[in-house]
Amino acid sequence: MGKVISLVNQKGGVGKTTTSINLSASLAVLGKKVLLIDLDPQGNATTGIGVNKGEIENSIYDVLIDRCNIEDAISSSKYKRLYVIPATINLAGVDIELMEKSNADATFSKGSQLKNKLDKVKDQFDYIIMDCPPSLGLITTNALTASDSVIIPVQCEFFALEGIMQLLNTIMMAQKTLNPNLDIEGVLLTMLDSRTNLGFEVVEDIRKYFKERVYNTIIPRLIRLTEAPSHGKPIVAYDPKSKGTEAYLNLAKEVIERNGHN
């Protein structure tokens, strides 16, 4: 059975997309078959993994509105064992379309479209990683309903904990109403600037609060990590020797260990 993991945080700029791309690629390097699903209308995970947006035939939008089968939207990436369902700007309007369908047809469940589709291909992958948009709208609801667990990336900065409380409420609501099996896979500390004490204080606060749920791996703030997606490459391909590569491979190992996959 494939494990479906969403990367969720309603705050933008916390390293969600960077982590989606690099965790997916690192899991693939470690021998896992991975599907990366871009659920953000900006499509940054799509370009960051090297997909040319001009060549996309079927995107996650087409899957969600029943314009194509999910199998037809999965394409292989340039990397071994790593597959992708891309996003295009069309996705920005999907909330409204799902709402309209739901209003017109009482049996249409607007929050579980993604789950219904993913159930068909889940067994073909070891991991399905979903990059969610920085909002808590219908796309994120679909992701939470379809996921086994969530990874929450948290930037090592002063207001980090405040935003997380709101997100935790959303996750708890989703557990109650949509998906009782939804689990918090882990909390990932990102963008640590090792030159300041503040970052380390935040790390301490978050570890105090989430305890063993916080990954041991902390993703540092690195120029190479921000450069890599503009070249359409995960860090492991862009700069195999970098600290970023080491960090994401370590994270991937932690994810595999927590899931008891050897």
- On the 0 to 100 scale, the average pLDDT is 92
Q: Write down how many β-strands occur, each being a DSSP E stretch of 2 or more residues.
A: 8
Portion in beta strands: 15-25%
SSE sequence, one letter per element: EHEHHEEHHEHEHEHEHHH
Low-confidence stretches: none
Beginning-to-end CA distance, first to last residue: 14 Å
- Give me the secondary-structure category: alpha/beta
Radius of gyration: 17 Å
- Could you estimate the helical fraction of the residues in percent? 40-55%
The best one-word shape is globular
Please outline the major beta sheet: 8 strands, mixed
The side-by-side strand order for the widest beta sheet comes to 3-4-2-5-1-6-7-8
Structure annotation, total helices: 11
Q: How would you explain this protein's 3D organization?
A:
The chain contains 11 helices and 8 strands. It is α/β, with parallel strands linked by helices and 262 residues long. It has an 8-stranded mixed beta sheet, with helices on both faces. The two termini are 14 Å apart.
